[in-house]
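Hey, can you fold this one?
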Amino acid sequence: MFTKIQEIFSIPELKRRVMFTLGLLIVYRIGSHITTPGVDASVLTEFFARQRGTILGLYDLFAGGNLEKATIFALGIMPYISASIILQLFQAVVPYFEKLAKEGEEGRKKITQYTRYGTVLLSIVQGFGIAIFLESMTGPSGTPAVMFSGWGFRILTVITLTAGTVFVMWLGEQITERGIGNGISLIITVGIMARYPIDGLNMYRAITLGQMSPFKAVIIGLMMILIIAGVIFVTQGQRRVPVQYAKRVVGRRVYGGQASHIPLSVNIAGVIPIIFAQSLIMFPGTIAALFPNVSILQSITLWLSPGHWIYIMLYSLIIIFFTYFYTAIVLNPVDLADNMKKSGGFIPGIRPGKRTAEYIDRILTRITLPGAFFLAFIAVLPDLLITRFNVPFYFGGTGLLIVVGVMLDTLRQVESHLLMRHYEGFVKHGRLKGRRG
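Sure. Predicted structure:
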């Protein structure tokens, strides 16, 4: 491990990319401590302490805790993620966007441009909603969260939060282009990991106050290590479908005739099913908080509270459904079979075309099932740990999947840079036979 770190900083270009990425992430964390003008952040902290199980708590997770502090990055990168998901859905149902997705680099640039426009539009709408939300908020002692409410505050808040989201989006794009790893994913990951020191401190306090025995803490620590290993195993799990390409003679050259494979991941949908499921199952609780006098809403909130058996069952079923749904959107077996047929590829023993699509769809259906069950387990794990084992922090769920997935992807990119530099070193310093200086 230490040898790899030394190799990273011994290569000038890779060192520059890593330092550039770290620098922009530090800028993002500095902005996470700048409060929006006119807001009392202490009132929000008291309010969000009671919102861990609602959709606001989920939103604050992706915002890196910025919504809880009402910083200039309170919207975080969520408008960009929402716009990206909407554009992905459009590519599956709208012919125009489906055509753009197949136009290569030019189509990708147009989709990126539409995503940016959508990000700004969603930021304006959500920023106005947050401004109204802040004006209506008061602390336990009746202290208002906003010092001077009115249209001046609303317009200023919309401009501030929209500019903050656009700046975070720009930081993510710069990291992706000039740094290392996916910038948007790294920004989300840094926001999630910023909570880890506080979680460790809460664990230490629970041990010192006698709320948790040291033996139990060790058992929980070992269980966390095993769960992280399981997440890594499932994230990297693949079903490789062999593909053979037929030989083609063009002039005097022979093309094709190679053997390859299609890597079908066990968890193609990633963390999206959990996000959709959390948004749906937290929605009744969020509505009930706005109407505290409606008894039926309060009963539904009780049934859907974390730890209740109805909540666990319904939450798991929704995750399994969205795992299959999003997998079908991301990977279309018919399009994959058509592309293979056009390039002269075929699966040994399977006829090209419809039979190939059915074969791939059958494999996807089988390998997606264990991935869906594992996602459901990871999603309900934090609630089980808190309600059954009295763990004083959230472990698992969306945050764990995002952190593990992004870290693995970043390490792969670093490894590819190291291999590429090593190969260049062989060519540069080696001596090719048959040539003279």
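The longest strand covers residues 238-245. Let me know if you want another pass with a different chain boundary.
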